[in-house]
Amino acid sequence: MSGVDTGVRLASLFAAVAFVLGLHLMNSPATARRGNQLSAFGMLVAVLAVLVSVSHGGSMTLTRWLVLGCGALIGGAAGLYSARTVEMTQMPQLVSLFNAVGGGAATLIALADYQRDTSVSAGVATATVLDVVIGGVTFSGSLIAAAKLQGHWSQPVSFPGARFASAALTLAALAAGVDVIAGAHNAWILTIVVVTALGIGILMVLPIGGADMPVVISLLNAFTGTAVAMAGFVLGNATLTIAGALVGASGGILTKLMADAMNRSVLSIIAGGFGTGATGVEVAGGSGGTVKSIAIDDAALQLAYASKVIVVPGYGLAAAQAQHEVRELGELLESRGIEVSYAIHPVAGRMPGHMNVLLAEANVSYDQLREMEDVNPEFDRTDVVLVVGANDVTNPAARRPGNAVSGMPILDVDHARSIIVVKRSMASGYAGIDNELYGDPKTSMLFSDAKKGLASLVAATKLVD
């Protein structure tokens, strides 16, 4: 083994270690940024190691270097532009698009290698088929998920015979895949696998409702990692396999945790939508009880004279870009000696960790972010809960059977002494049912856009003696 080969292997080992350590650091919001940076550096080292390896092999021509360089520049520029310009409310869509890119790239790698190598072992053929199937499902499914998150469909989409079509596509993919693994080296047969996988991805995501989207994004992320791992097997690249396996495993664990947080199985989520709610448009409705509104000055008085306040952020806060206003209100209350914390439901927002990232962007202290299991016992000792744009995750109806949110763990905000809900209207959430919290005698509705309402609360609270 030459010195170059040894250096490449050591660099690949360093990259793999960086991925593992980076993923570990992402367990905590306080170290997540460093974990992201370490993982990115590990990926840079891995890419450079591959470039050195292919250069040392002597197979690279000037044309190939130009193709690689152009691809890297275009992809890097697109990624940098997207990351810097995307709004926080559009982050789930961006993640879905990145999942699609990862799945599509893994599929193309498998296709290109299969076309190039006319004699592949059964093991490599199996990895190729799995790569194509998982990558194809991820690509089309992620594009549909991004479109749904963008609000292009107001309801889960289905049609007569959809389940039969899914079953037929699955059988066709299975038959063609077995043929490839058995040794039939035919690009057209593998193309059938690709086409059927794309169809399966579309039919899988179309009927899924908005409330299940955080779980779906996590699941597709796990698919992306698994497809990349299969691509590593196809190419014989251990670093690619390790990186993909880490993403696939962590995404799978997160998907299970997210599904458990909704008291649903992953299979039931894939089988159909949750409720009838929209991903981009709320469904009009009422609370079904006596609803009372509250003026800004009265809400400010309640907050200013409380001893303990818990803020419950939801997607409405993200949509209004009100994270800075809620942080300013929290700091103002703290300056008055009031204990302030933020209750984060696992499926708040539209993707895992959405609320954590949003509040971190506004420099809310990590120590104030409380997970559902930790914060629920504290509501009984809370003077005022301020709900900003959260709906289904606070609905007491989840404790009763027979409705769209039955069994879903919720934030027990109705246990507090007083609840103030900042919301534009009485529209229902993604599950498409009324929130019983709004009719609770302890609840007051502050009808306002989250950003304007919170800014007014800050101004009014400053005037309280």
Verbal overview:
It comes from Jatrophihabitans lederbergiae. Its main location: membrane. The transhydrogenation between NADH and NADP is coupled to respiration and ATP hydrolysis and functions as a proton pump across the membrane. The chain has 465 residues and is α/β, with parallel strands linked by helices. It has three domains: 1-85, no CATH class; 89-281, no CATH class; 296-462, 3-Layer(aba) Sandwich (Rossmann fold), CATH 3.40.50.1220. It is 58% helix and 7% strand. The chain contains 16 helices and six strands. The chain has helices spanning 3-25, 32-57, 62-85, 91-116, 122-149, 162-181, 187-205, 213-235, 238-261, 266-271, 296-304, 315-319, 323-335, 354-361, 372-375, 450-462; strands at residues 308-313, 339-344, 369-371, 384-388, 418-423, 443-447. It has a six-stranded parallel β-sheet. The radius of gyration is 25 Å and the shape is globular. The model is unreliable at 273-287 (pLDDT under 50).
Task: Label the overall shape.
Answer: globular
Number of DSSP helices? 16
Strand segment tally: 6
Largest sheet report: 6 strands, parallel
- Helix share, percent: 55-70%
**Count of folded domains:** 3
Low-confidence stretches: 273-287
N→C terminal distance: 78 Å
Sheet with most strands: strand arrangement? 3-2-1-4-5-6
Query: Helix and strand succession?
Result: HHHHHHHHHHHEHHEHEHEEEH
Instruction: Give the overall average pLDDT.
Output: 85
Report the oligomer.
Answer: single chain
